[in-house]
Design a protein that fits this description.
- The structure is a single chain.
- The protein has two domains: 146 residues, no CATH class; 106 residues, no CATH class.
- Helices cover 38% and strands 7% of the residues.
- The protein contains nine helices and four strands, in the order E-H-H-E-H-H-H-H-H-H-E-E-H.
- A hairpin with a 2-residue loop joins strand 3 and strand 4.
């Protein structure tokens, strides 16, 4: 594969996820989402709100995929599974043209109050409007332009960063790896995008899976995937438009809190070996 050292074999291909040959998508249960302070005005027009209305909340964690958001909306509204997904297709959400009516990446992570009379279309519309407000800010537009990408591409980068990094510092470095690889026309080789293609969240990625025929398989296809792979929060977006400075091309988390970034393939392979040894020791 282009940009890999000539001595590299399939078994020794550089793995770019923060866990070497493995990937970890952050669990929705452990992500703290930003609170939306403006209440949703979803009571049908012309109907006065009830004097006493019990308000429930909908949590959209950072990094959660659209399919997961749809399922959460169905649950909180007590409606038939699949209803919100159908509404996402049928409703004209105010999305950028590049999204092609796919709201992935624009269901902004937050805690949303859900009042009586709320509808799937109303909730999705509010999430998208919130994302457009946050991602449409001048600093985001300027940051994207400065990196030579569009705002929509920046949202896609932010979604990868969200899936691959745990801390703001590491987010900035992961974003730099993405930009460095794009600048060199190197495949991103991110397990997080492959997991999206396979509709899963798993630790293990096999060599055969890296041959999956999908535009989200960034082992086989150069450039960014066609859409975001989840819904990023503000920290990930900040990293995408303002990546850390560095020449890094690889990264791996060898132990909790110890993510190593390097531009040297040989050094990266040593880091991967250390990670594999640590994992092997932990399972025995």
């Amino acid at each position: 594969m282009k940009n890999e050292p000539p001595h590299a074999t399939p078994e020794r291909r550089p793995r770019l996820t923060r866990r070497g040959r493995l990937v970890l998508i952050v669990s929705a249960a452990v992500v703290v989402a930003t609170a939306v302070l403006v209440p949703l005005l979803l009571v049908p027009s012309g109907e006065p709100p009830a004097e006493e209305t019990k308000t429930v909340s909908l949590l959209v964690p950072e990094g959660q995929r659209a399919a997961q958001v749809y399922a959460s909306v169905d649950k909180v509204l007590g409606i038939e599974p699949g209803t919100t997904e159908k509404a996402a297709t049928a409703t004209r959400l105010e999305l950028p043209d590049a999204a092609r009516r796919n709201p992935e990446g624009y269901l902004f992570p937050a805690t949303y109050p859900v009042e009586a009379g709320a509808t799937p279309a109303g909730l999705l519309g509010y999430m998208v409007d919130t994302a457009r407000e946050r991602f449409g800010a001048e600093r985001v537009t300027a940051g994207a332009r400065g990196n030579g990408v569009s705002v929509y591409q920046s949202v896609t980068i932010a979604s990868i960063v969200q899936a691959e990094a745990d801390t703001p510092t590491d987010m900035g470095r992961v974003a730099r790896v993405v930009h460095n690889r794009l600048a060199r026309d190197m495949p991103l080789q991110m397990d997080s995008t492959l997991n999206y293609a396979l509709n899963r969240s798993t630790l293990d990625t096999t060599h055969s899976e890296t041959k999956t025929e999908s535009p989200y398989n960034t082992y086989e296809f150069r450039g960014l995937p066609p859409t975001p792979i989840g819904n990023p929060g503000e920290e990930a977006m900040n990293a995408a438009i303002n990546p850390a400075r560095g020449d890094w091309l690889y990264f791996v988390t060898v132990a909790p809190g110890d993510t190593r970034f390097t531009a040297d393939y040989t050094e990266h392979q040593r880091n991967v070996a250390e990670f594999n040894a640590n994992r092997s020791a932990a399972t025995h």
